[in-house]
Amino acid sequence: MDRLSKQHRSWNMSRIRGKDTKPEMRVRSLLHRMGFRFRLHRRDLPGKPDIVLPAYGTVIFVHGCFWHRHPGCRFAYTPKSRIDFWQSKFRRNVERHQEVTTALRELGWRVVVIWECETTSDEQLEQRLYDELYET
Prior knowledge:
Elements: H1 6-14, H2 22-33, E1 39-40, E2 51-53, E3 58-63, H3 65-68, H4 83-106, E4 110-115, H5 122-133
Parallel strand pairs: 3-4
Antiparallel strand pairs: 1-2, 2-3
Helix pairs in contact: 2-5
């Protein structure tokens, strides 16, 4: 049973942003400090990737662990109410990302996913980004 009223839950959900999230801003800030230049949310690409690095042929998605079901992550829990609704929603999110990834790869892009829980340590995130972008 949800402890919040339907109106309050709706208000909470409306506050969840699809872009310019804190994890996304951390990745962008770190990339900029590392000297990379990029574009944001290009509408002409499938899935409107969060970050596009044309010079590297790479797109970066910064995924929330809850919404995109980060395997093995403690933040990828399933709410206890309306389980069928949530499982269906999560399944579609994962399927959509797989479709977008396939479409981008067919267009010649390299796809990198940074999970929300990976954005807590600048040192580890910087090393991950460096490895991904300079991978041959």
